[in-house]
Write a structure and sequence with these properties.
- With 295 residues, this protein is an alpha+beta fold.
- The chain has 2 domains: 3-55 and 158-292, no CATH class; 60-152, Alpha-Beta Plaits, CATH 3.30.70.
- The protein contains 9 helices and 4 strands, in the order ααβαβαβαβαααα.
- It has helices spanning 3-20, 22-57, 71-82, 95-106, 134-142, 154-196, 198-206, 211-251, 262-292; strands at 60-65, 87-93, 123-128, 147-152.
- A 4-stranded antiparallel β-sheet has the order 2-3-1-4.
- Helix 1 packs across helix 8 (211-251), helix 2 runs antiparallel to helix 6 and helix 8 runs antiparallel to helix 9 (262-292).
- The longest helix has 43 residues, at 154-196.
- The protein is elongated and about 100 Å long.
- The two termini are 24 Å apart.
- Pfam families: FtsX, FtsX_ECD.
- Belongs to the ABC-4 integral membrane protein family. FtsX subfamily.
């Protein structure tokens, strides 16, 4: 396409947006509502993926040591644990430290169990090379001498990953439905515009204008509609996420997990929303024109 022709098409598309008035506002509003919902869904899905990945990598084996095991026997047990395939790191947590964790989590009333009344056990916390090795390490550790029991977050982690997979599937389905609705609304809006200019288009065809020459201003008009409709969602999603991140980052600090840092992904969401808006706008216009220009 020549530069002169492209400039003309751009001018025509902008004039058409202004000329259509409320119809253009309706189309932009449809894109805006759709992209706000899509932006929120994408932000939620990406953060769920991030937290799920953190949980997966944080799965540990807690090896509960027999109460009667001496310090020397505990050292022997640690040496045997280190020889198990897949073990990356071993740290020790005394029953006093375990009770302090319980008190910090559930309240000061559990301080009654301090000293000789402490019902908890000394524990070796075993980090594995990969989450997939957690179960095998736990099973091997349980067979060792001086081990009372082994515990790991495998069962809860599996439930979490299943829930994440379900949320991802439904989030994708809902996003696609929203985008389809936006394309449909823009398509109908552009179709009404085309019908109102049917005489103009008929004259252009009579004087020899090609279908592509007639089609491009409408496709660009749809792209402008999508771009304008993406501006407000980008601003709202950015502001809302920055506000939510400020609140959640402090409350989640004690868990060891964090949401995605705004600077690492918000600009990607912004670009994606702008691209989606332009694409669905141009697609909606293209569909309307392809039907209208059929001979």
């Amino acid at each position: 396409m020549k530069t002169v022709t492209l400039k003309r098409h751009l001018k025509e598309s902008l004039k058409s947006l202004k000329r259509n008035g409320w119809m253009s506002v309706a189309a932009v509003s449809a894109v805006t509502v759709t992209l706000i919902l899509v932006g929120v869904l994408l932000s939620i899905l990406l953060n769920i993926n991030k937290v799920a990945h953190d949980v997966e990598n944080d799965v540990q084996v807690r090896v509960v040591i027999d109460r009667d095991a001496t310090k020397e026997q505990q050292a022997q047990l640690k040496a045997k644990l280190q020889k198990i395939d897949g073990v990356q790191k071993i740290s020790f947590s005394s029953k006093k430290n375990e009770l302090n964790n319980v008190v910090g989590t559930y309240g000061k009333e559990f301080q009654l169990f301090k000293g000789d009344d402490n019902p908890l056990y000394d524990i070796f916390i075993v980090d594995t090379n990969s989450p997939a090795e957690t179960i095998s390490v736990a099973k091997k550790a349980k067979k060792l001498q001086y081990v009372y029991d082994t515990r790991y977050g495998g069962a809860s982690a599996k439930k979490l990953f299943k829930a994440v997979a379900a949320i991802q599937r439904w989030g994708l389905v809902i996003s696609l439905l929203l985008l389809f609705v936006a394309v449909f609304l823009i398509s109908n809006t552009i179709r009404i515009t085309i019908l109102s200019r049917s005489n103009e288009i008929a004259i252009m065809r009579l004087v020899g204008a090609t279908n592509s020459y007639i089609r491009w201003p409408f496709i660009l008009e749809g792209a402008w509609t999508g771009f304008l409709g993406a501006i407000l969602p980008i601003v709202l999603v950015d502001i809302a996420y920055l506000w939510l991140y400020g609140i959640m980052s402090s409350s989640m600090a004690s868990t060891g997990y964090q949401l995605l840092t705004p600077g690492t992904f918000l600009w990607q969401i912004d670009l994606l929303l702008a691209a989606i808006g332009i694409i669905i706008g141009a697609l909606g216009s293209g569909l309307s024109m392809s039907r209208f220009l059929k001979i």
